[in-house]
Specification:
The structure holds 2 protein chains of 2 kinds. Chain A is built from 13 helices and no strands. By secondary structure, chain A is mostly helical. The longest helix of chain A has 37 residues. Chain A is globular and about 70 Å long. The mean pLDDT of chain A is 88. Chain B is mainly α. Chain B contains 12 helices and 2 strands. The radius of gyration of chain B is 24 Å and the shape is globular. The mean pLDDT of chain B is 87. The chains are: A mainly alpha, B mainly alpha. At the A-B interface, α1, α3, α4, α5 and α6 of A face α1, α3, α4, α5 and α6 of B.
Chain lengths: 281, 293
Amino acid sequence: MKNSTYRNTYALFFKSLMLICMAFTLTCIIFMVVYIFINAIPHVSYDIIFSKPSYINDTIGILPDILNTVYLIFTSVIVVLPFGVGAAIYLNEYAKSKVLIKVIEYAIETLAGIPSIIYGLVGMLVFVQFFSLQTSILAGSLTLAIMNLPIIIRTTQESLKTVDVGYKEGSFALGAGKFYMIRTILIPSCSYGIINGCILSIGRMLGESAALLFTAGFAHTLHGYIDSLSSAGSSLTVALYVYAKEQGEFDVSFVIALILLIMSLVINVLATFLGNYISKK
Amino acid sequence: MKYVINSKSNLQEKVAHGAFFTLGTLNILLVTLICVYLLLAGLPGIIKIGFFDFIFNDTWASTAQNPQFGILPFILTSLYGTLAALLLGMPIGFFCAIYLSFFVSKKLKTFCIGLIDLLSGIPSVIFGFIGMLVLVPFLQELFNLPDGASLLAAILVLALMILPSIIKVSIVALEAVPKQYIEGSLALGANEVETYFKVIVPAAKSGIAAAFVLGVGRAIGEAMAVMMVSGNASNMPALFESVRFLTSAVASEMSYSQGLQKEALFSIALVLFVFILTINASFNFILKRGQRK
């Protein structure tokens, strides 16, 4: 039998090791956030955020990149929503064959595991070259949409499962058809879950860069929404990469990093808030 | 539903069923499409270069007079980098998970998990950016290197990036362990730490294994952050050497590649895809085995 001093030291050692690991992780996170804030704040100005790059004045503005990011996210969400929600409804409500469900779920898991650089390549082959969309916001959005299908499907499935069976049966008992029941009972009662899925996938789209390199391109030109669909444009993440790694423009990079950080923070808070709200209901 | 009399709504039901069926099976189509496209794009390169020459040649000189396309350095870098990042990130993440599950008050736990969620939401370019500005010069100073952009820098960045998913999956696994196990062990006189390591960890083994495999999948697929801190020269992997991963090899040359070079890049993507599929399959296998118990 080991003596108790040994056991106590052993316990103390591992306890402090855990504490150190936790402290280390938190320090890293806080350091990253503070580092970006401290370095970015002095460079934040109206000009940098609300203008476009000009070679004549030798100034850099990130308005095009911000708009491109918004366009990309907007288009992808519009595309991915019906597909994701539809697939989830099929899996939970219609599909009867166990084999088919298994195959579809395996396909979704595979989609979720494919790294973004491979999505970028396939997006380039399929959308840019095969459908000849050129490197454009549309091609980038479609690539992002496929990447985010699994998230939307999963979150929708989860919230479909929480709908009270009594509602469904009551609706059938009153003579409603299946599609009528889905339209009037299922989708409204899991709308918060679907919105939460959207927020999660917006967070992923915001941070995505490797998939956009070859599908949406690097251009920093200012476009309206419709125009932008057919023209190349870099998202904030791609712009950050280009400015930091290839042009060495660190001031702008910090500002972009700050914007990305704040946006992902907001999305994070929204998702947590909504998640709590749903579980409370 | 069988007694729908109205034929219009009957038709509507049928159309809806068909539409949902299409949306559901579309996922299978998408995966097949991705596989087929990667095979079509990747195989010609491998065939032209020769499978063994492609996988086991240790020189990548795609733009040389006599181009050589050996991706052994990339494969090894990806493997070493991923494993080292896991070796570093796994214990840290795992200890954090134990700490958060059992030692911390509920309020502090929510706060810490909030911060960890924030970490997982930070875009990978920001990791690369900070790694480039802080970590790389730091390593250069610390080890007196000509250039701090090295495999080591990539490993450290990757380890930090996979922490959130490791922590969260481990927490789920740890909290699924029945409370009676803990209470029984404590009642028998084991102290807290002994209980955690000898009772809970064995019980949560499959969940922790799942966290490991998930981390591998994330680390091996990461492109941007790694590209920004690893230096991007196609050397054989060494801790202080500038290296290139499978992902960064594709990303860094794709924009200007042509001909056989481009085909070789698609072949690299195919190799990466095969790695990922293997990892996913083992992930599913571990999860299923865990559930069966």
